[in-house]
Amino acid sequence: MLGLPGSGKGTQSEFISNKQNIPHISTGSLFRKADQDGTELGLVARQYTAKGELVPDEITIGIALERLDQDDCSQGFLLDGFPRNLAQAEALNQYAAARNKMIDHVIYIETDEALLLERLTGRRVCPACGKTFHLMNHPPQIDGQCDYCSAKLIQRADDSEETVKERLKVNRRLTDRLVEYYDSKSVLRTVSGSKEIHELSEDIAELLQRD
Ligand code: AP5
Ligand code: MG
Ligand code: ZN
User: Fold this and answer.
1) Could you confirm whether domain 2-22+75-112+161-210 is CATH 3.40.50.300?
2) What's the pTM value of the predicted model, to 2 decimals?
3) Which percentage of the chain shows pLDDT scores above 70?
4) pLDDT digit string (tens) for 86-113?
């Protein structure tokens, strides 16, 4: 899943992962989990994620590819937020080629940037089960409480206005490069992220059925 911060990668990945029965692997979530667990990786990653910068490739590539080696990925997987630059894309390419695997689809959620700041600052997440909500677009049934496990919802540490602006700046050009890269490999499928959540998920489901 390719797209700027707030484009809806995580939201849509959850639908696809459930439907296709493949693991949803988000490097951002792996870093947040490590931070929550207080591991060395978590500490290092936080220095970058807190500022909205990319975690260095040597760390990120190692974490992502190690995750893909786990048994539950043997029949396929969905990557969300990885690769994020050309070096990561090349590393994934080599990893896949060495195992006779293919990247079948790269879904690019193209979104009007004016929407993203409001989406990210209004996002609330469940620290217990990881589900994502939005104050206006996707509110929980009970204010401030997770629909799935009743835990108290929180705001992600990198969803402050200042950090969001930095994340958009960091990712804008890199995302464009990856769009060109995957387009040249004829695996790019572009969808409009400005649509409502369920409408967009129908577009993606249809597109995956077609190919
Ligand atoms: P990561 O967690 O991947 O963050 P991100 O790329 O900034 O993307 P987000 O998770 O913020 O947005 P999303 O597209 O998933 O949107 P969501 O579905 O939640 O990475 C975090 C950090 O980790 C990075 O900044 C970096 O430091 C590091 N990192 C991660 N991967 C890395 C890599 N490969 N290399 C180096 N560093 C890496 O939706 C957002 C909100 O909008 C939600 O509230 C949702 O409810 C709402 N919403 C979703 N879709 C819609 C819609 N269609 N209409 C209205 N509202 C919607
Ligand atoms: Mg996400
Ligand atoms: Zn929950």
Assistant:
1) yes
2) 0.96
3) 100
4) 999 999 999 999 999 999 999 999 999 9
Question: Which residues fall inside 5 Å of ion ligand 2, going by CB?
Answer: 10
What are the C-alpha distances in Å from 161 to residues 118, 120, 165, 167?
Answer: 9, 8, 6, 10
Query: Pick the catalytic residue: 46, 51, 101, 156?
Result: 156
Residue 84 bears catalytic tag: yes
pLDDT, tens digit, 9 for 90 and up, residues 165-190: 999 999 999 999 999 999 999 999 99
Backbone region of residue 145 per phi and psi (left: phi > 0; alpha: psi in -120 to 50; beta: other values): beta
**111 Cβ below 6 A of ligand 1:** no
Distance spanning both ends of the chain, measured CA to CA: 16
Separation of CA 141 and ligand 3 centre (Å): 12
Burial of 116 (C-beta count, 10 Å sphere; 0-12/13-18/19+) = buried
What ligand is nearest to the CA atom of residue 139? Answer: 1
